[in-house]
């Protein structure tokens, strides 16, 4: 398989682990989840060689900057076909946003995930907790019940319009992106 990433470095203030940051991250995760579902549907209905896609804002790499990224995986030799489709889906999301039904579907998934995690809190394994500690960056580790409580409070702020506004805030900035290619064969210098 091959992968292409489009990345733009943007200014971003230092991260503070608070409720507002959690809501912001949830909005971006939900927007990314919607786009992944759109790509999956398009891939199945039109036989496009996507293997997957990821959209992300990688915070706290430095004090002032964060990379905004669109990464697309595809079958070998098909990156030229899939990249414009991914870019089109991204532009459409920036311009037109998300449907209430798309947001509702992901909110339901998050409801289930947080509720199940809280129910299983007593049976968590040490390896899972160790992984959380290893990946600790600007966040504070919370219990699954605390995460569920924050989720329930944050959910009131997760409308299709607010998710679109947060997504647009970051992905409308891809003015001079860098392109990264990963594959088995080198690409032609003209590509």
Estimated radius of gyration? 18 Å
The coarse silhouette is globular
What structural class is derived from the secondary structure elements?
alpha+beta
**Numbering strands along the chain, what is their spatial order in the largest sheet?**
2-3-1-4
Distance between the termini: 18 Å
Task: Give the arrangement of secondary structure elements.
Blueprint: E1 2-11, H1 19-46, E2 50-57, E3 65-74, H2 79-96, H3 100-119, H4 126-134, H5 144-154, H6 160-171, E4 178-182
Antiparallel strand pairs: 1-3, 1-4, 2-3
Q: Can you describe what's shown?
A:
There is one protein chain. This protein has 191 residues and is α+β, with helices and mostly antiparallel strands. Helix content is 51%, strand content 17%. It contains 6 helices and 4 strands, in the order βαββαααααβ. The chain has helices at residues 19-46, 79-96, 100-119, 126-134, 144-154, 160-171; strands spanning 2-11, 50-57, 65-74, 178-182. The chain has a 4-stranded antiparallel sheet with strand order 2-3-1-4. Strand 2 (50-57) and strand 3 form a beta hairpin. Helix 1 crosses helix 3 (100-119) and helix 3 (100-119) packs antiparallel against helix 5 (144-154). The radius of gyration is 18 Å and the shape is globular. The two termini are 18 Å apart. The mean pLDDT is 79.
């Amino acid at each position: 398989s091959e992968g292409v990433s489009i990345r733009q470095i943007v200014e971003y203030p230092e991260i503070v682990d608070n409720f507002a940051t959690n809501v912001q991250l949830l909005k971006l995760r939900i927007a990314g989840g919607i786009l992944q579902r759109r790509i999956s549907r398009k891939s199945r209905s039109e036989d496009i060689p996507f293997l997957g896609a990821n959209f992300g804002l990688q915070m706290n790499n430095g004090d002032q900057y964060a990379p905004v990224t669109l990464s697309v995986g595809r079958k070998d030799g098909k990156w030229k076909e899939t990249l414009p489709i991914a870019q089109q889906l991204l532009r459409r999301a920036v311009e037109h946003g998300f449907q209430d039904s798309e947001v509702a579907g992901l909110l339901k998934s998050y409801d289930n995930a947080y509720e199940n995690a809280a129910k299983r809190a007593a049976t968590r394994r040490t390896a899972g907790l160790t992984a959380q500690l290893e990946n600790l960056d600007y966040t504070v580790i919370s219990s699954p019940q605390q995460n569920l409580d924050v989720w329930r409070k944050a959910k009131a702020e997760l409308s299709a319009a607010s998710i679109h506004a947060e997504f647009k805030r970051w992905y409308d900035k891809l003015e001079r992106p860098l392109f990264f290619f990963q594959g088995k064969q080198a690409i032609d210098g003209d590509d």
